[in-house]
């Protein structure tokens, strides 16, 4: 067993930690004061205070929600059967400008960890500080680019110095707040780097890459945090002083690189992220449960859901490029923090069962028997007790397995028998209700058209004619290098003299993500990258006037790349061009090496129009009086906060692309005009077989052909009850705000099924004062539709009566499926019940 010296700043009373001894030593646990815990490990588990523990963890990224939401999210995670919360640390959020730090509001990381501690849970601190995470630039600050000699994520002083400075800052903050386990805090594991093993072979510098990853491990260990350091997806060149771990949809067949360390699954992807051009991914509860059960069947003991709550990419934090503002991820808690059923409940049942078998799983002798091809029986035995798993990894064949009795194990499922006789859980049999969430209007004021708008044009003039740029260059620069990502927007402007009038075509080659072209102050063309191709060309006819002509090009980014070998060097903007005018009479004018003037950001950003300060001159005040489909326009409205405590969203259908703020708080970028692609996997769904997010085999997609995101989360903490609230939009491409409306998110329909007589059927409208309004379906053998629209089957009048009596008017109800519900030819199939909540 490996025991770690405790964090060096602990002020608790404790026996001297064996700092000088080599790590690979078997040591007894040390008793400490003030709730401090020792964290060690062996080949079976993480060992906390001498006890081998099963760690069931969930990722909740603190900046993707608000501090006001954190306690509720953490409580729901705990009630969902987790004992640990995991998060990355968001370097470019904490240090947006070099040595200017932000630890306020949703970046108050210490407060987040204190909430975890308060809930009595453990924590995993994934510092990175490269974090990927569909986060802008993978979490790395773009200002790193300005440091001479900087090479990202390789062995070089400039990078390593900055990485160490930030890592130490975070560690010290955590130590000061006594957040490490040895200090009595919740943190039991910490991570350095992220999935470096996936890309290190492609960096064309093996030696530097290997030196760097060893430097990372040494630097981390020097921090003396008293808990083990992990490194995910680092299967080769694994430093001796870290634990390598697995990320993926499945990790049962993966084992760590050496003996003596536990099998840790740092990212079990509960769904997938969404991009503006993609539909919504869904990973079924059955498949996630299958993957988790397989992992514990095969000696896993530490498992983290990525994501347990995905949340929202507020501000300019989404990465990609092209990740949507919603980071819902199809996680067990939805973007707004609501419980997603049946995923949440089905996994909760599994967690509770696994934790009840903890001792046997982490101590037991184990024995795997191949029952048939792809069918395995695993028996763990400890202290005279046994638990069994039966896994059926066949995609489409159910099998009968005899173990005590004969058990039918459906295709692609695992049965768990805590006494090796009776099946307590099968991953394919869902006992939890399905909840369908709706976005509802609560009052007349929330109907489209009810909001009164005023507007203001973005002042484009400064960059159409005069010379007020920040600097000049006879080169077309990469946008990230030129402006270090302080805004989405970068102006490039040049001028040329022309004899007489002339008709041309303007060609702009750009590396994306979008471009607007103006000639002599007039918008002449716009384009954005599509289908994942970020290199594209704008082609548009233009007229030149006699004399001086101005060509102003506005380049916009939509989240910087966050993943891949040398991702940081992937250019954005009109890097290198060329930019050309091709004359209708055959004359070409190459502007690539003209004198270009640069300016980052828009005038309205500099004036902070989103803060709605006094002195801003808004025009108009009614729906008819505002311009629509006008590019580069600011809009403002005031609204009452919807009553109650359900999550609030704003429906921005009708708008095109831009950014939104409520009471000065950013809701993120919006782009409802972007339609999600129709692709393979849009209209097929089967939980059986390996889940994939890319390539062939993708399935269960929804929202195909629809706006990829029309609803934007307005956290309750952004709103003021009983006072007017302000919504400000910056519409960049031209849209119609008059259709915008506020909604609340609530449980609409709830469904549950009972396979056998004796089963309980529980239905809940999810709190917030919602009750069952009516029972729509109580039928056997329902064949068509999904929850909210079930059809077919054979209605049981007795069941309908029983559910109506027990449920209508109530927030939740439980009814036992009795033999009395059958009759009238209604014997076959499961009993399915669907109710409406209001
Ligand atoms: C992993 C990465 C995470 C996240 C995930 C996909 O490769 O470590 O940060 O990007 O993929 O959601």
TrEMBL record:
CDD domains: Gal_Rha_Lectin_BGal. GO terms for cellular component: apoplast. It catalyses: Hydrolysis of terminal non-reducing beta-D-galactose residues in beta-D-galactosides. Pfam families: BetaGal_gal-bd, GHD, Glyco_hydro_35, SUEL_Lectin. Residues 377-430 form the Beta-galactosidase beta-sandwich domain. One of its GO terms (molecular function) is beta-galactosidase activity. Its main location: secreted. Keywords: Apoplast, Glycosidase, Hydrolase, Secreted, Signal. InterPro entries: BetaGal_gal-bd, Galactose-bd-like_sf, GH, GHD, Gly_Hdrlase_35_cat, Glyco_hydro_35_CS, Glycoside_Hdrlase_35, Lectin_gal-bd_dom. Residues 46-352 form the Glycoside hydrolase 35 catalytic domain. The lineage of its organism: Eukaryota, Viridiplantae, Streptophyta, Embryophyta, Tracheophyta. The keyword RNA-binding does not apply. Residues 1-36 form the signal peptide. GO terms for biological process: carbohydrate metabolic process. It comes from Panicum virgatum (Blackwell switchgrass). Belongs to the glycosyl hydrolase 35 family. Residues 633-723 form the Beta-galactosidase galactose-binding domain. It is found in: Secreted, Extracellular space, Apoplast. Residues 763-837 form the SUEL-type lectin domain. This is Beta-galactosidase. Its EC number is 3.2.1.23. It comes from the Eukaryota.
């Amino acid at each position: 067993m490996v025991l770690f010296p405790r964090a060096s700043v602990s002020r608790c009373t404790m026996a001297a930690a064996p700092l000088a001894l080599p790590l690979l030593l078997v040591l007894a646990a040390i008793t400490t004061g003030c709730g401090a815990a020792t964290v060690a490990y062996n080949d079976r588990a993480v060992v906390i205070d001498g006890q081998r523990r099963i760690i069931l963890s969930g990722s909740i990224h603190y900046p993707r929600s608000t501090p006001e939401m954190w306690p509720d999210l953490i409580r729901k995670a705990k009630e969902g059967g987790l004992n640990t919360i995991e998060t990355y640390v968001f370097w470019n959020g904490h240090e947006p400008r070099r040595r200017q730090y932000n630890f306020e509001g949703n970046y108050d990381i210490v407060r987040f960890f204190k909430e975890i501690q308060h809930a009595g849970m453990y924590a995993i601190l994934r510092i990175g500080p490269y974090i990927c995470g569909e986060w802008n630039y993978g979490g790395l600050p773009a200002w790193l680019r300005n440091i001479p000699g900087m090479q990202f994520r390789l062995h070089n002083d400039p990078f390593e110095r900055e990485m160490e400075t930030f890592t130490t800052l975070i560690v010290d903050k955590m130590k000061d707040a006594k957040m490490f386990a040895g200090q009595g805090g919740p943190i039991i594991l910490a991570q350095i780097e992220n999935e470096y093993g996936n890309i290190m072979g492609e960096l064309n510098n093996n030696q530097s890459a290997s030196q760097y990853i060893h430097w990372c491990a040494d630097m981390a260990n020097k921090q003396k945090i008293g808990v083990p350091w992990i490194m995910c997806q680092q299967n080769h060149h694994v430093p001796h002083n870290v634990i390598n771990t697995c990320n993926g949809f499945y990790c049962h067949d993966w084992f760590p690189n050496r003996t003596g360390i536990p099998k840790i699954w740092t990212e079990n992807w509960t769904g997938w992220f969404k991009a503006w051009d993609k539909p919504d991914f869904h990973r079924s509860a059955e498949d996630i449960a299958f993957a988790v059960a397989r992992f514990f069947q095969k000696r896993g003991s530490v498992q983290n859901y990525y994501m347990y709550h995905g949340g929202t990419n507020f501000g300019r934090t989404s990465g990609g490029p092209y990740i949507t503002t919603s980071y819902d991820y199809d996680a067990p808690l939805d973007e707004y923090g609501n419980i997603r059923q049946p995923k949440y409940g089905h996994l909760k049942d599994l967690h509770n069962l696994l934790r009840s078998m903890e001792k046997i799983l982490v101590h037991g002798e184990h024995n795997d028997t191949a029952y048939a091809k792809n069918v395995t029986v695993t028996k763990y035995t400890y202290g005279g007790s046994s638990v069994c798993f039966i896994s059926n990894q066949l995609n489409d064949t159910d099998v009968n397995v005899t173990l005590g009795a004969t058990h039918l194990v459906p295709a692609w499922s695992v049965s768990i028998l805590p006494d090796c006789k009776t099946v307590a859980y099968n991953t394919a049999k869902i006992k939890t209700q399905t909840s369908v969430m709706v976005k509802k209007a609560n009052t007349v004021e929330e109907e489209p058209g009810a909001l009164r708008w005023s507007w203001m044009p973005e002042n484009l003039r400064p960059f159409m004619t005069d010379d007020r740029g920040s600097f000049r260059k006879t080169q077309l620069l990469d946008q990230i290098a030129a402006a270090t990502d302080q805004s989405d927007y970068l102006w490039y402007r040049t001028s040329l003299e022309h004899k007489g009038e002339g008709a041309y075509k303007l060609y702009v080659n750009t590396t994306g993500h979008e471009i607007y072209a103006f000639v002599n102050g007039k918008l002449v063309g716009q384009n954005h990258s599509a289908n994942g191709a970020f290199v594209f060309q704008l082609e548009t006819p233009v007229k030149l006037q006699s004399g001086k002509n101005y060509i102003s090009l506005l380049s916009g980014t939509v989240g910087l790349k966050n993943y891949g070998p040398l991702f940081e060097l992937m250019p954005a903007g009109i890097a290198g061009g060329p930019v050309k005018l091709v004359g209708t009479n055959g004359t070409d004018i190459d502007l690539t090496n003209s004198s270009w003037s640069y300016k980052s950001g828009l005038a309205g950003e500099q004036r902070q129009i989103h803060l709605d300060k006094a002195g801003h001159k808004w025009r108009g005040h009614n729906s008819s009086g505002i311009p629509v489909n006008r590019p580069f326009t600011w809009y403002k409205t005031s609204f009452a906060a919807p009553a109650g405590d359900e999550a609030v969203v704003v429906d921005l259908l009708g708008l095109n692309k831009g950014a939104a703020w409520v009471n000065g708080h950013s809701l993120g970028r919006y782009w409802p005009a972007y339609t999600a692609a129709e692709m393979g996997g849009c209209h097929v769904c089967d939980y059986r077989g390996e889940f994939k997010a890319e390539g062939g085999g993708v399935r269960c997609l929804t929202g195909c052909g629809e706006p990829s995101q029309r609803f934007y989360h307005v956290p309750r903490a952004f709103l003021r009850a009983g006072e007017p609230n302000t919504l400000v939009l910056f519409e960049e491409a031209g849209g119609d705000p008059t259709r915008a409306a506020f909604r609340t998110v609530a449980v609409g329909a709830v469904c549950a099924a009972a396979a056998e007589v004796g089963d309980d059927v529980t239905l809940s409208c999810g709190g917030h004062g919602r009750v069952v309004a009516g029972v729509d379906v109580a039928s056997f053998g329902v064949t068509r539709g999904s929850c909210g629209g079930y059809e077919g089957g054979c209605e049981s009048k007795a069941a309908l009566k029983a559910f109506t009596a027990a449920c209508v008017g109530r927030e939740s109800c439980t009814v036992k499926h009795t033999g009395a519900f059958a009759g009238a030819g209604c014997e076959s199939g499961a009993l399915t019940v669907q109710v409406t909540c209001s």
